[in-house]
Amino acid sequence: MRSIDIARMIDHSVLHPTLTDDDLKKQCEIASRYKVATVCVKPYHVKLASLFLKGSGVNICVVIGFPHGNSSIDVKVIETLHVCADGAKEVDMVVNIGKVLQGDWDYVKKEIDAIHKACIDNHAILKVIFENDYVTNDSDKIKLCQICNEINVEFVKTSTGYGFVKGTDGKYFYNGATESDLKLMRKYCNPSIQIKAAGGVRTLEQLLKVRDLGVTRVGASATEEIMKEAILKFGE
Fold first, then answer.
1. What is the pLDDT of residue 166?
2. Residue whose C-alpha is closest to residue 218's, from 14, 40, 59, 11
3. I need a surface site. Which of 36, 61, 81, 217 has the fewest CB within 10 A?
């Protein structure tokens, strides 16, 4: 194991609503320094991220239908086409959560398939975000895995990191990537489909733990902290 192997597992997340263009530049510098897999950005930041990352070897990942998946299929497809034209190489889409919860599987399959085809036509890969803080029944998660198998998507992903649930104390929280969900997704997805853990992976120890569960990519905003730990443990 080398620190670069850790870096290539990371989609460096730059998604908070308050982040400015200056913040994006700083985060792209971090991503370039450590040679992570991608910087994961909001749609309007793709062009600017392309400029900041030019020649770095770091790809651009972009979210669509984010964070709640509520756009129509046509809008999600248009968004996909736009971000690919702007330079995105990977697309992380949020499923229509309401349609999942009501069991409208024809709609869900149609949506994922349409976006996947748009990605294929533009030489991008697709990650399908289940948002497991909202999709809490294992049977629904298994069905999503089966649909993704049929469409042969490249990745499935646990969460957005913004799926906040209101607790009995009135405070909002999210679980993000849980061990049980990662085991389920690895069990029911075809071996060819990779797993991305997002939400709550903030340390090297947590990253290595999900790696042992079959995860090949993580979404993380604590990239610098993780990589400093990795360099200390594994060397440059």
1. 84
2. 11
3. 81
Distances in whole angstroms, Cα of residue 47 to Cα of each of 50, 72, 73, 82: 5, 24, 23, 10
Burial zone of 114 (CB within 10 Å; 0-12 exposed, 13-18 middle, 19+ buried): middle
In one-letter notation, the amino acid at residue 39 is V
Q: What does the alpha-carbon distance between residue 188 and residue 146 come to, in Å, rounded to a whole number?
A: 7
Of the residues 42, 127, 141, 196, only one is catalytic, namely: 196
Whether the bond between 43 and the residue before it is cis, its omega within 30 degrees of 0, is: no
Confirm whether 143 is a catalytic residue.
no
Task: Note the pLDDT of residue 236.
Answer: 81
How much is the CA Rg of the chain, to the nearest whole Å?
A: 17
Share of the chain above pLDDT 90, in %: 92
Tens digits of residue pLDDT in 154-211:
999 999 989 888 888 988 778 889 999 999 999 999 999 999 999 999 999 999 999 9
Q: Domains, the chain, ranges and CATH?
A: 3-234 (3.20.20.70)
92 is catalytic: yes
Q: Which residues pair with 60 in a beta bridge?
A: 39
pTM for this entry: 0.96
Which of 11, 92, 133, 140 is flagged as catalytic?
Answer: 92
* Long-range contacts at 200-204 (CB < 8 A, ≥ 24 apart): 200/161, 200/174, 200/175, 200/176, 201/176, 201/177, 202/226, 203/229, 204/6, 204/229, 204/230, 204/233
Under 8 Å between Cβ of 105 and 142:
no
